[in-house]
Amino acid sequence: MGMQSLERRLERMVEGVFSRRASNTIRPIELGRRLIREMDDQRSVDVKGRRMVPNEFTIHLSPEDHSGFADIEDALRTELVEAAREYAREEGYHFMGPVSVLLRVENSLKPGRFGIASQLRQSPGGSPLGALVLPSGERIELRDKPLTIGRLSDSQLTLPDHNVSRRHAEVRRTGNGFSVIDLGSTNGTMVNGARISGEHRLQDGDIVSIGSTHVRFEAS
């Protein structure tokens, strides 16, 4: 079930964006399928009983195939990272750190053939890491220092929106995760469409809405 639903998402998400690359010898959907298969093949169980999977992937391509993806490489990598994260959420897998996908040239490969190498890599310093992903795709990393959100220019995340209070909300490290705290804003803070009261513990994939801006929370 997980593989089937993931492939449907990949068909919509990846092929919808990159269908114009149909003339390439490798389709992005093939990369996505191989990547999630690599996660299944390399999964392990840690001392806490969690199923851990690789979070760093290097895709080796022939020079011709790598060149064929050159103009969309950044977008392709982003889509593949999202595919990995979606699959991990559905299967209950855990990452040790942020997910990354790199494309590398392998001169010995013929067009149409590719390989994937993966590894588990811990977040810097071994501490949990999270991020807020803005609608533009920009990522704001979350660490130990609280991140303030508001209309004031000295906020870590400034939102020039009249529906946003001057000091609207804060994302703060709590235990081994992160929480969003509404700072008494006029219009409130929403998580997954529901208005929160005070502090709310964030889960991977939660959508935090502040004014007309919706950001996605990602936990490593």
Description:
The chain has four helices and 17 strands. The protein starts with a helix and ends with a strand. The protein has a six-stranded antiparallel beta sheet, with no helix packed on it. A five-stranded mixed beta sheet has the order 10-9-11-12-15, with no helix packed on it. Strands 1-2-4 form a three-stranded mixed beta sheet. Helix 1 packs antiparallel against helix 2 (28-41). A hairpin with a 2-residue loop joins strand 16 (207-210) and strand 17. The protein is α+β, with helices and mostly antiparallel strands.
Q: What are the secondary-structure elements, in order, as H or E? A: HHEEEHHEEEEEEEEEEEEEE
Strand sequence of the main sheet, in spatial order? 8-7-17-16-13-14
**Residues in helix, %:** 25-40%
Question: What is the β-strand count?
Answer: 17
Oligomer: single chain
Number of helices: 4
- SS strand fraction: 25-35%
| Whole-number mean pLDDT | 86
Main beta sheet strand tally, sense and closure: 6 strands, antiparallel
Question: Cα distance, first to last residue?
Answer: 24 Å
Helix vs. strand class? alpha+beta
Poorly predicted residue ranges: none
General shape: elongated
Q: What Rg do the Cα atoms give?
A: 19 Å
